[in-house]
Amino acid sequence: MKQSGFLQFVLICTLSSAWLCASNALAYGSIQVNSFKLAAVENGYAVSIDSKIELNPTLEKALEKGVVLYFVNKFTLVEPRWYWFDKEVARIKTRIGLRYHALTRQYHLSDSTFSKNFTTLKDALRSLEQLRDHPLTIKHELKSNVHYDAILRLWLDLTRMPKPFQVEALGSNAWNLSSDRLEWHMKLPSPEQPFQISGDQ
User: Fold this and answer.
1) Exposure string (b/e) for 24-50, b if CB count within 10 Å is 16 or more?
2) Can you spell out the DSSP letters for 144-162?
3) Which residue from 4, 49, 46, 35 is spatially nearest to 186, judged by alpha carbons?
């Protein structure tokens, strides 16, 4: 399966720019997609994503003040149509909240389906970076012979934050945490062969 269409949108730090990338991660934070997998399962399709999330000092201080940081994973499949607008046929969208409880000195991850506590921020981020076998929501009929446009992006959702922090975030790189918008063309995977790709290939 050809992967060049995806890889050309993945920004990878070369040896010559590794120091610059590390400096930016410390100053501004970053979200990078390390790998993606779409697998055929019994009742449809499931998505798994591995990422790397680096928080900057501004975001860490916001956590310590009790601000909840919401992180979004969004993947969509779009059917191109030459005669009309393109049609979104399937998607996943997760929104997970990360907060710090000063009383218990624990970090907490939660969404509508789960709730977990962690003793360190590193452990909480490690869990946040891994999305496993999330069901794909199918909006229209999927066709095995169609090449779909696939779009993937991960970001910090500022719209869920308190208004004062939204105002502070305007025009500030410290709050603008997002992966690149990754796009590629693909057919649906078979049960025997999942579609998977990693950013270091």
Assistant:
1) bbeebbbbbbeebbbbbeeeebbbbbb
2) TT--EEEEEEEEE-GGGS-
3) 4
Q: Which residue has the tokens 């506590």?
A: 117
Highest mean pLDDT, choosing among 2-11, 116-125, 190-199 = 116-125
Claim: this prediction has a pTM higher than 0.85: no
Contact 174, 58 (CB under 8 A): yes
Distances (CA, A) of 30 to 11, 39, 63, 81: 12, 27, 16, 35
DSSP 15-57: GGGHHHHHHHHHHH-EEEEEEEEEEEETTEEEEEEEEEEE--H
- Amino acid identity of residue 66, one-letter, is G
Residue 149 has pLDDT above 70, yes or no: yes
In this predicted structure, the answer to whether residue 168 has a pLDDT above a threshold of 80 is no
Question: Tokens representing 147?
Answer: 């090449």
Amino acid (1-letter code) at residue 59 = L
Q: Mean pLDDT over residues 170-176, rounded? A: 76
Angle subtended at Cα 8 by Cα 128 and Cα 170, rounded to the nearest 5 degrees: 50
Q: How confident is the model at residue 9 (pLDDT cuts 50, 70, 90)?
A: very low
Question: Distance (Å, rounded) from C-alpha 167 to C-alpha 4?
Answer: 40
What percent of the chain has a predicted confidence (pLDDT) above 70? 81
